[in-house]
Amino acid sequence: MEDQKSLDIPSEPEKYSKELNIAVRAVQMACSLCQEVQDSLISKTNNQIQSKDDNSPVTVADWSVQAIVSWVLSESFGSENVSIVAEEDVQNLSKADSAGLLETVVRTVNDSLSAAPCFGLEGPRNPLSSSDVLEAISRGNSTGGATGRFWTLDPVDGTLGFVRGDQYAVALALIEDGEVVLGVLGCPNYPMKKEWLNYHHRYHRIISKLTPTTSESWDKGCVLYARKGSGETWMQPLLKKNNKLIWPNSAIQAQVSSIDNPALATFCEPVEKSNSSHSFTAGLAHSVGLRKQPLRVYSMVKYAAIARGDAEIFMKFARTGYKEKIWDHAAGVVIIQEAGGVVTDAGGCPLDFSKGIYLEGLDRGIIACAGAKLHEKILRAVDASWNSSSL
């Protein structure tokens, strides 16, 4: 993280300040829930892993996070005022043979909400019932659009990383009249300090068990957040167990790297090859003189890496037929932009979040860079390389 400054209280313009405050607290609580479930998944194999229709794994954490974030937003702003475009639905969870799974989700949700006061939030007076939890999850069935206000939520972005004990993210954003106005990105396994990135994530797990949880030398995860037009992106450590969240929880300002020479840049790309062409990005990297090994991480953690200066370029060129979903990008886009970076499609146009659940009209792919000069160089390289590619 380059040129960061530490402040006791980040300045926040009045508009969207309550929404941002509530969203950060909700994501902090969601990350805590995810850590508990991930520890359980890694320690034993159980029925917490299911398959969706597209054969990607979905866990108790996905449904539970969607339920608690939905519930918190509805309690804070009124359910009639809250519309959410979210990844999960209740189809599998409502099946007759999923009673045990639903019971686990309900218990996980209530355990999490019982700790709401630690995050500066008010929990329910009584535990939520199964129907309450299903209703909260179902609130994520909005289809978005060009007018009005809605939230986007990816409860566990990078589920494969999650079940493997690797990187994943909780992504929450607010969109108003088609524009992303705030974003919060929780990265439970992405350490506050850049030097910890040199260690494998499984080594992180060993260190976290050996190091006291109160140690300031080891902050396992972080939450980044930004409000459109503020020119500021902030990062705070995850709340440690049994502590209370004191806003803004040791927040420091995050800024993109100043590197604009491709030869010195680090670029990110998805781990999975199923929805991104590694061969094209590798060829493109070579053509612009990128020398460093790519940073391959699951989920929107790639957006966090660029926003805080750990990497300079994120390129994603989907294979034919794959459609990008708005919840996979909304929070990350505003966080990079307010940290000083640039995010567009491969034609240099802003990403369009006004067309429903997909990023319609996307020109070839998505390019995020630490600065305008570097971004322009990558755009030119894409144009030069595209016709010779097989995409």
TrEMBL record:
Protein name per the record: 3'(2'),5'-bisphosphate nucleotidase
Q: Which organism is it from?
A: Rubroshorea leprosula
Q: What does this protein do?
A: Converts adenosine 3'-phosphate 5'-phosphosulfate (PAPS) to adenosine 5'-phosphosulfate (APS) and 3'(2')-phosphoadenosine 5'-phosphate (PAP) to AMP.
> Which family would the database say this protein is a member of?
Belongs to the inositol monophosphatase superfamily.
Organism domain of life:
Eukaryota
What EC number(s) are associated with this protein in UniProt? Answer: 3.1.3.7
Gene3D superfamilies associated with the record: 3.40.190.80, Fructose-1,6-Bisphosphatase, subunit A, domain 1
Q: Name one GO biological process term.
A: phosphatidylinositol phosphate biosynthetic process
